[in-house]
């Protein structure tokens, strides 16, 4: 809502505007009077350069900003900004204001610190000397405020240079600016202090990379983009944006001290904009001020101290309307937004004269377009938008209509709401949310704190009755919250029974609003503040709410009951704002003592403000009554001490203010005695007559309504090639595979009109991928080319024998291989085969250690451990003691890995981190060879991933091919994304996590940093996340599929985690830990909650794990017990499928078969679960160790979870749980505008 603030009589706003620029007597601020800064004071230093952004500065004390109270980190930029969240890369250079992120800008310009051109220092300081200095600055600017900060963020731009662009401005050569910003915070408010020392601002413009010209700096504040579903610019204030006003920053003040400017930036008064100080510098009384220069100024008075009337003007010419704000707000704290006018209407620009003026009465300056202004408030205004590109902002049960100034949504017949959100009339509603509180009970000095507490509400709409339950409320505060029925009462107001011509809260707001309430208990010190944020309807059809409680409540004795009589409350309506206040009584009945029970009547006063967005473009809409009366009866409150649940129930109706006669309220629809079905709407008639009407999607006489199964009654309702799914009150259509919805809403065949790329589809006639490659030539053309090392026309290629003649050194052997060759120096020579010199190869660390222990004689000394080396001299990953029989894993340097030593006779499943040697010769293509249609097994072998087609459950061994060559990697774990047809892997040689498309193309690495030994990997194809185990860092992590938004799920109670799998539909996670002392299989929800041990007994070395989505069967292979076992999670029994395995490593499932890789046989083995028998074995051509195996399904299993639609409504990570989901913020993006909720 854009506001132009006016009143009649003497004006007040000039006190905000004129002192900002009028310089007065007194000395300028000296540099030594700045807050202490530099490395000696604990400052961090921003990296030198242009457009730099600091890492997150984590705050020990939360910062308040506009309407937020939980800013816990900030970012500092070269360009004169303190950001409340990490600025996007595309906004690193100054551009159009406001930015998308919250920002404090003491001097926003393109600044440069490259090559020592100045420095930027920053820190958070909690020292008494600095906080006291900040308190004194704020006190000068706000003398009526008692402010004692507990911390201050101090940022100093020292001698920074202007960015000058390609053509340097000689007038700016050597010019440097020094300025400082201090953000001081207490528990209740935050203030910004800008300091501009004498001669500190030597330039006021910089070169704009966007406009390619010199542009003035800006002094401003921005709330950033607001809104979860519909995003829009939040409030912002520009205080200086031209050369004259920038030049006056060091000469003037708004706080009484030259060069020092103070602003209130975080408190209840700053929800719609920051509040500047209004203390003048002491102006010369002899100067005169000519009012004639301001003929566009409206003079207003302050005679009416009870309320302040604000005239609101709709964006781009909307009709104004008026509302009243309670007089408890000081005039300076009123929302003062810049008015928007029709394009044809202009008001005079406001230009401050250069000389000093005598201080006059404050005035309201009504400004539209400012061309050469001084410092003014500027507010954003959206350009006209239409239904053509905004229809998605309306509910699917609403129509969109264009108007002269914009568009509006309105619910269709049978639905109620504000158009953006619509629900069926008369249908029951559910509300879910979270509650957190910090409450002082009675005289106790220690607050009761609770967080993440669940709130659930059920509303019978045609009765206007709401049932609200808040769970896990501590009993130390539970009884004392009983009088606060209005916590749940706001839900009752939303769905109150509407009398004719009156509207409940949902009809007005659509369930998207903020409520701030204040409760004062008469005779009890302190007050309770309630803040509730309603976020509309989520993807599950439930309203969402977040509630915060903070303050004092009187203590109510354990076991007491509370009775609240029916009451009424008046709601006062203005555009975008609803207010109400009342005084209520409640009776506390304490438990009986000595056969007698006492009851006492108490009183509390209640005030609330509800703010929301409404559509102002439709001027034909019926005007809402200025005042409506909410009638509440049948109030029921209860605290269950055993379950720790707080319950509120109320019946609500909304209508006119009673004139003393209750006759109008006796219609059964209004008082809830109608007896209509819970899925019906009550339609009032004259007097006490009424009718019950089933809600849309239900059938009956209104007193009994049953769901209409549209799918059965109208088999063709979805049309051809579609599936109909019935839901209570509605139905949904889904296109069958191979079809999609057209713009008309029918299912049409998916037709690819593009030319066919025969290379990616595999329909070409080139030789096999091991000998030739298909090259796409555009259109539907392609050509075939033999790979290096082969000759022919591409359709038939023969191996070239590179050893005829030999390309190796004369003192080397040449070995021909398909498509390549290798060279090896002869005995007595050393080198790579292409260059050989006399002498033996230099011994490795392992070989030298063996020689040292064995001695010159080559005999092993009894009782000593002698390391084993491979053929290349590297340490074997598994080392065993010849005398004791103990075995353990070692790293590439031979060091024992903690937690891997096993008992005698058992060999641990150790992994080699040494990549195989890469022989000189023609390079092997690393691109993925496209996968033919069908289901395949994918398995990892040192240096590559191979595919093995399945026909039914049979392995098509003759069709096995290499999918991806990765000669420099040791790939361990594999996971397959059935949606995008991508394979994901872990690599322990780099270490890294990578992926590649099975349609072809080059592989990519998605994670390189902060990995130790990533081994197992799993994928949630519905929530679009990957999970992996890291046995070196002993943790389990999750990230998005592109490797971003990492979050550590577990980093405790893990020793050797390896196999990991997901149950995407049910939201569960399973993993193995082959800890030698206590092997186990664990499970949790995907969000890390409900962690527990699933299997712990009779395990040896549990390696591989697989979960079959179709049978819900969890199976694992154990290299210690040499068994395959399975169980169904949630059922106690486990089944031994097969015993006597050699050395199983990884396992996957498909149909009734399991497929596992075996280290001793270097094979893939098939097991039939139905008969508990091995049915087939595949031996790859290259006999090296096999690692991970997964199934590349031709299509995804059916099902969904709560993250599969719109990321579950989460801003970042959505992690599924059984029947719900949790929104998580990544570990590495603290401070980003991220919302965590369940």
From TrEMBL:
<feature type="domain" description="EGF-like">
    <location>
        <begin position="665"/>
        <end position="706"/>
    </location>
</feature>
<dbReference type="InterPro" id="IPR001881">
    <property type="entry name" value="EGF-like_Ca-bd_dom"/>
</dbReference>
<dbReference type="GO" id="GO:0017147">
    <property type="term" value="F:Wnt-protein binding"/>
</dbReference>
<keyword id="KW-1015">Disulfide bond</keyword>
<dbReference type="InterPro" id="IPR049883">
    <property type="entry name" value="NOTCH1_EGF-like"/>
</dbReference>
<dbReference type="InterPro" id="IPR000716">
    <property type="entry name" value="Thyroglobulin_1"/>
</dbReference>
<dbReference type="Pfam" id="PF07474">
    <property type="entry name" value="G2F"/>
</dbReference>
<keyword id="KW-0325">Glycoprotein</keyword>
<dbReference type="Pfam" id="PF07645">
    <property type="entry name" value="EGF_CA"/>
</dbReference>
<dbReference type="InterPro" id="IPR011042">
    <property type="entry name" value="6-blade_b-propeller_TolB-like"/>
</dbReference>
<dbReference type="InterPro" id="IPR050778">
    <property type="entry name" value="Cueball_EGF_LRP_Nidogen"/>
</dbReference>
<dbReference type="Pfam" id="PF00086">
    <property type="entry name" value="Thyroglobulin_1"/>
</dbReference>
<feature type="domain" description="EGF-like">
    <location>
        <begin position="799"/>
        <end position="837"/>
    </location>
</feature>
<feature type="region of interest" description="Disordered">
    <location>
        <begin position="309"/>
        <end position="348"/>
    </location>
</feature>
<dbReference type="InterPro" id="IPR018097">
    <property type="entry name" value="EGF_Ca-bd_CS"/>
</dbReference>
<dbReference type="InterPro" id="IPR036857">
    <property type="entry name" value="Thyroglobulin_1_sf"/>
</dbReference>
<dbReference type="GO" id="GO:0005604">
    <property type="term" value="C:basement membrane"/>
</dbReference>
<feature type="compositionally biased region" description="Basic and acidic residues">
    <location>
        <begin position="334"/>
        <end position="348"/>
    </location>
</feature>
<feature type="domain" description="Thyroglobulin type-1">
    <location>
        <begin position="843"/>
        <end position="910"/>
    </location>
</feature>
<dbReference type="GO" id="GO:0007160">
    <property type="term" value="P:cell-matrix adhesion"/>
</dbReference>
<dbReference type="InterPro" id="IPR000742">
    <property type="entry name" value="EGF"/>
</dbReference>
<dbReference type="Pfam" id="PF12947">
    <property type="entry name" value="EGF_3"/>
</dbReference>
<dbReference type="Pfam" id="PF06119">
    <property type="entry name" value="NIDO"/>
</dbReference>
<dbReference type="InterPro" id="IPR024731">
    <property type="entry name" value="NELL2-like_EGF"/>
</dbReference>
<feature type="repeat" description="LDL-receptor class B">
    <location>
        <begin position="1067"/>
        <end position="1111"/>
    </location>
</feature>
<dbReference type="InterPro" id="IPR000152">
    <property type="entry name" value="EGF-type_Asp/Asn_hydroxyl_site"/>
</dbReference>
<feature type="domain" description="EGF-like">
    <location>
        <begin position="707"/>
        <end position="748"/>
    </location>
</feature>
<keyword id="KW-0677">Repeat</keyword>
<keyword id="KW-0732">Signal</keyword>
<dbReference type="GO" id="GO:0060070">
    <property type="term" value="P:canonical Wnt signaling pathway"/>
</dbReference>
<feature type="disulfide bond">
    <location>
        <begin position="880"/>
        <end position="887"/>
    </location>
</feature>
<dbReference type="InterPro" id="IPR003886">
    <property type="entry name" value="NIDO_dom"/>
</dbReference>
<feature type="repeat" description="LDL-receptor class B">
    <location>
        <begin position="1024"/>
        <end position="1066"/>
    </location>
</feature>
<keyword id="KW-0106">Calcium</keyword>
<dbReference type="GO" id="GO:0030198">
    <property type="term" value="P:extracellular matrix organization"/>
</dbReference>
<protein>
    <recommendedName>
        <fullName>Nidogen-1</fullName>
    </recommendedName>
</protein>
<dbReference type="InterPro" id="IPR009017">
    <property type="entry name" value="GFP"/>
</dbReference>
<dbReference type="InterPro" id="IPR009030">
    <property type="entry name" value="Growth_fac_rcpt_cys_sf"/>
</dbReference>
<keyword id="KW-0964">Secreted</keyword>
<keyword id="KW-0245">EGF-like domain</keyword>
<feature type="repeat" description="LDL-receptor class B">
    <location>
        <begin position="981"/>
        <end position="1023"/>
    </location>
</feature>
<dbReference type="Pfam" id="PF14670">
    <property type="entry name" value="FXa_inhibition"/>
</dbReference>
């Amino acid at each position: 809502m854009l506001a132009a603030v006016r009143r009649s009589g003497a004006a007040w706003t000039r006190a905000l505007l004129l002192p900002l620029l009028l310089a007065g007597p007194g000395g300028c601020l000296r540099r030594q009077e700045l807050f202490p800064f530099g490395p000696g004071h604990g400052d961090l230093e921003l990296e030198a350069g242009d457009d730099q952004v600091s890492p997150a500065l984590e705050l020990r004390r939360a910062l308040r900003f506009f309407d937020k109270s939980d800013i816990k980190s900030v970012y500092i930029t070269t360009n004169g900004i303190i950001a409340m969240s990490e600025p996007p890369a595309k906004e690193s250079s100054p551009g159009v204001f406001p930015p998308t992120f919250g920002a404090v800008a003491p001097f926003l310009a393109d600044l440069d610190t490259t090559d020592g051109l100045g420095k930027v220092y920053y820190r958070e300081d909690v020292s008494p000397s600095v906080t006291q200095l900040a308190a004194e600055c704020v006190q000068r600017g706000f003398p009526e405020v008692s402010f004692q900060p507990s911390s201050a963020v101090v940022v100093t731009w020292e001698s920074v240079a202007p960015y000058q662009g390609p053509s340097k401005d000689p007038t700016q050569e050597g010019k440097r600016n020094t300025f400082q910003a201090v953000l001081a915070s207490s528990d209740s408010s935050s203030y910004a202090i800008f300091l501009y020392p004498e001669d500190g601002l030597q330039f006021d413009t910089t070169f704009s990379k966007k406009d390619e010209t010199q542009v003035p700096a800006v002094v401003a504040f921005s709330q950033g983009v607001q809104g979860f579903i519909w995003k829009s610019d939040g409030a912002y204030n520009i205080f200086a944006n031209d050369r004259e006003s920038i030049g006056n920053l060091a000469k003037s003040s708004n706080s009484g001290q030259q060069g020092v400017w103070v602003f209130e930036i975080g408190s209840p008064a700053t929800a719609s904009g920051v509040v500047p100080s209004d203390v003048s510098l002491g102006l010369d009384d002899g100067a005169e001020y000519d009012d004639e220069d301001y003929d566009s100024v409206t003079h207003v008075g302050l005679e009416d101290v009870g309320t302040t009337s604000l005239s609101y003007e709709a964006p781009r010419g909307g009709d104004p309307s008026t509302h009243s704000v309670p007089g408890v707000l000081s005039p300076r704290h009123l929302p003062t937004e810049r008015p928007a006018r029709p394009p044809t209407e202009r008001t005079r620009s406001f230009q401050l004269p250069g000389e000093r003026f005598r201080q006059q009465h404050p005035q309201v300056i009504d400004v539209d377009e400012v061309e050469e202004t001084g410092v003014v408030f500027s507010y954003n205004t959206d350009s006209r938008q239409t239904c053509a590109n905004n229809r998605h902002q309306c509910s699917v049960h609403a129509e969109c209509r264009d108007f002269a100034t914009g568009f509006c949504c309105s619910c269709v017949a049978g639905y109620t709401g504000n158009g953006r959100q619509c629900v069926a009339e008369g249908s029951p509603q559910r509300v879910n949310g979270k509650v957190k509180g910090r409450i002082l009970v009675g005289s106790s000095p220690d607050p009761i704190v609770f967080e993440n507490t669940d709130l659930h509400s059920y509303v019978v709409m045609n009765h206007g009755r709401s049932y609200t339950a808040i769970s896990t409320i501590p009993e130390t505060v539970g009884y004392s919250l009983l009088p606060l029925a209005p916590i749940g009462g706001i839900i009752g107001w939303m769905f109150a029974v509407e009398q004719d011509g009156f509207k409940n809260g949902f009809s007005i707001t659509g369930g998207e609003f903020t409520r701030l309430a204040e409760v004062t208990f008469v005779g009890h010190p302190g007050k309770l503040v309630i803040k509730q944020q309603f976020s509309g309807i989520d993807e599950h059809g439930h309203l969402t709410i977040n509630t915060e409680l903070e303050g004092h409540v009187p203590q109510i004795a354990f076991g007491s009951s509370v009775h609240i009589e029916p009451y009424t409350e008046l709601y006062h309506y203005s555009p975008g704002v609803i207010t109400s206040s009342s005084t209520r009584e409640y009776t506390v009945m304490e438990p009986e003592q000595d056969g007698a029970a006492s009851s006492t009547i108490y009183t509390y006063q209640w005030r609330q403000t509800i703010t929301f967005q409404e559509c102002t473009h439709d001027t034909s809409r019926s005007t809402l009554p200025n005042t409506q009366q909410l009638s509440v009866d049948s109030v029921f409150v209860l605290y269950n001490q055993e379950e720790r649940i707080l319950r509120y129930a109320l019946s609500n109706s909304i209508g006119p203010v009673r004139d003393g006669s209750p006759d109008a309220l006796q219609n059964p629809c209004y008082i809830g005695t109608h007896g209509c079905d819970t899925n019906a709407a009550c339609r009032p008639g004259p007097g006490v007559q009424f009718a019950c009407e089933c809600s849309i999607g239900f059938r009956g006489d209104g007193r009994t309504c049953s769901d209409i199964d549209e799918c059965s009654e109208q088999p063709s309702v979805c049309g051809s090639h579609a599936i109909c799914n019935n839901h209570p009150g509605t139905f949904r259509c889904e296109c069958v595979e191979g079809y999609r919805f057209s713009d008309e809403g029918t299912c049409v065949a998916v037709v690819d009109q593009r030319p066919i790329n025969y290379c990616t589809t595999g329909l070409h006639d080139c030789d096999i991928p091991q000998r030739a490659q298909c090259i796409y030539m555009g259109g539907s053309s392609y050509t075939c080319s033999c790979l290096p090392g082969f000759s022919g026309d591409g359709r038939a290629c023969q191996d070239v024998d590179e050893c005829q003649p030999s390309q190796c050194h004369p003192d080397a052997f040449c070995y021909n291989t398909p498509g390549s060759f290798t060279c090896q120096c002869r005995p007595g020579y050393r080198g790579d085969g292409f260059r050989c010199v006399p002498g033996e190869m230099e011994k490795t660390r392992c070989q030298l250690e063996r020689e040292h222990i064995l001695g010159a004689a080559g005999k092993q000394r009894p009782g000593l451990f002698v390391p084993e080396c491979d053929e290349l001299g590297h340490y074997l990953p598994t080392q065993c003691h010849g005398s004791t029989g103990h075995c353990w894993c070692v790293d590439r340097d031979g060091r024992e890995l903690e937690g891997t030593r096993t008992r005698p006779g058992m060999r641990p499943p150790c992994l080699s981190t040494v990549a195989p040697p890469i022989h000189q010769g023609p390079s092997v293509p690393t691109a993925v060879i496209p996968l033919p249609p069908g289901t395949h097994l994918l398995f990892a072998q040192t240096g590559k991933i191979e595919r093995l087609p399945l026909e039914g459950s049979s392995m098509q061994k003759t069709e096995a091919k290499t999918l991806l060559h990765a000669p420099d990697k040791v790939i361990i774990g594999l996971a397959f994304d059935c949606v995008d047809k991508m394979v994901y892997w872990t690599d322990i040689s780099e270490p890294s996590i990578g992926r590649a498309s099975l349609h072809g193309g080059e592989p990519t690495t998605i994670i390189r940093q902060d990995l130790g030994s990533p081994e197992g990997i799993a994928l949630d194809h519905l929530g679009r996340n990957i999970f992996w185990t890291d046995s070196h860092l002993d943790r389990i992590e999750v990230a998005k599929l592109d490797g971003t938004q990492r979050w550590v799920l577990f980093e405790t109670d893990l020793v050797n985690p390896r196999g990991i799998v997901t149950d995407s539909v049910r939201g569960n996670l399973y993993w193995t830990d082959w800890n030698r002392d206590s092997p186990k299989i664990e499970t949790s929800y995907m969000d890390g909650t409900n962690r527990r041990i699933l299997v712990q007994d009779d395990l040896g070395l549990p390696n591989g794990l697989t979960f079959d989505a179709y049978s819900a069967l969890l199976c694992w292979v154990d290299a210690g017990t040499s068994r395959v076992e399975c169980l169904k999670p949630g059922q106690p029994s486990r089944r031994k499928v097969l015993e006597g395995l050699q050395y199983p490593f990884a396992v996957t499932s498909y149909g009734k078969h399991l497929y596992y890789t075996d280290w001793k046989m270097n094979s893939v083995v098939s097991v039939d679960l139905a008969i508990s028998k091995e049915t087939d074995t595949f031996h790859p051509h290259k006999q090296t160790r096999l690692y991970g195996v997964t199934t590349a399904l031709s299509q995804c299993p059916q099902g969904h979870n709560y993250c599969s639609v719109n990321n579950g409504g989460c801003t970042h990570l959505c992690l599924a749980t059984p029947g719900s989901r949790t929104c998580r913020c990544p570990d590495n993006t603290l401070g980003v505008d991220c919302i965590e909720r369940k």
